[in-house]
Amino acid sequence: MRIQEEMSLNEKLNILTDAAKYDVACTSSGVERRNNGTGMGNTKVAGLCHSFSSDGRCISLLKILFTNECVYDCKYCLNRRSNDVKRTSFTPDEVCRLTMEFYRRNYIEGLFLSSGVMRSPDYTMELIYATIYKLRNEHNFQGYIHVKGIPGASKEWITRIGFLVDRMSINLELPTATSLKLLAPHKTRDAILKPMRLIQNKSLESKQEIITYRNAPQFVPGGQSTQMIIGATPESDHQILQVTESLYQKFQLKRVFYSAFVHVNEDKNLPARTGEGPPLLREHRLYQADWLLRYYQFKASEILSEEEPNFNVLFDPKCNWALKNLGHFPVEINSASYHMLLRVPGIGYTSATRIVKARRLGTLDFNDLKKIGIVLKRALYFITCNGKMMYPTKIDEDYISRNLLNTKERLPAGISADGMTYRQMSLFDDVNFGGIADVKKSLSL
To answer: Cα separation of 121 and 150, whole Å?
Structure first.
């Protein structure tokens, strides 16, 4: 339903902020551009919530759609063409006004701007470019800006916008080309991956130009990210991780975001509506595994396999890997490599770095590890100090699993370990989608 009457700016804001709530790729990590003293805003000052600056501080972003009008009819999308919802659009001046007024009131530190596809990808990107250009050059806004690129847009508009924003992202939408064809028939994997490749190549060119010419403009200095909807299609967690690993390796993305499928439309190709709600535990496990890929030197094939394609419901992916690979343990804290320390449950990458530095000055014991910040209630089953374990411990999967569960760590809602052995549990007993040929094919560009 297209609403023709005039709307107030507040009415538009209510509609277009609500329409943007399913877009999760809000992050500003990696940007360090400061205010040069001539404008308003920067990417360094801490704010309220939603995102993080390059030094780890939390900042807030105004998160809106430019328009919820869309020529596409993606089956999972609230704003799809066939839905009877109120439609409206901002003008470039209205987005600028909102951003500047919210910034002056210290509500935000930057802007996250996404959009439906109005008329065509190029037409929409031209409007977004006009908005960001006004914000940067007429209002002199120097805060953080993240723009969602429109798949299918021309190289010209991707490039122009890339020199104005801090981060750009192109949504992958669904893990495989087959799923995309089923639920988003107007989009193609080629139209999504080509702008990703363009952003990657232009970023590399920009970095080389800055080396040669100090004042050369930067292209997407915060890098690019993407988002996948999880649970709308039958891919296993193993397949999704394979896609994620390939994206990091081939396109050098900063982040892959996972959005648990929310049932907002009725369609025969979507999962049946149940009372269980979005698969939030699955989304959480994917983020944990994603962290292992980016910071803990794991490979996707080590975390999951075709034989065990889905995450364990009771343990995080790192702990599950350790339980399945007890032959590598216990690890001697005073001699183990940094790579091996990263694989010990209870030891994070910061703690592993501290261990490596501290043991240069002397021999470490369990009291030292506690001071360093090791989570000993998890790590004690997998480590030794000076050849001794903290307590007499049997290196057995079922024994360690039961003891870990008895530490009263919070389990997912509705899950109980009482009366069950660890080996009987799995995350999705009815899901066992073998093969990753479709995954490899979908990322062959």
So the answer is: 6
CA dihedral 239, 242, 243, 248 (to 10 degrees): 160
For Cα atoms 9, 14, 16, give the angle at the middle one, nearest 5 degrees: 90
Enumerate residue ranges in the chain where pLDDT < 50: 1-4, 27-31, 43-49, 411, 414, 417, 419-440, 442, 445
DSSP-assigned letters across all residues of 16-65: HHHTTTT------TT--PPP-SSSB--SSS--SSSEE-TTS-EE-EEEEE
Q: How far apart are CA 51 and CA 54, in angstroms?
A: 10
The answer to whether residues 316 and 288 touch, using CB atoms and an 8 Å cutoff, is yes
CA distance 204 to 158: 15
258: amino acid identity, one letter? Y
Q: Where are the alpha helices (DSSP H) in 274-396?
A: 280-295, 300-303, 317-324, 338-341, 349-358, 366-372, 376-379
Beta strand pairing call for 255-260 and 224-230:
parallel
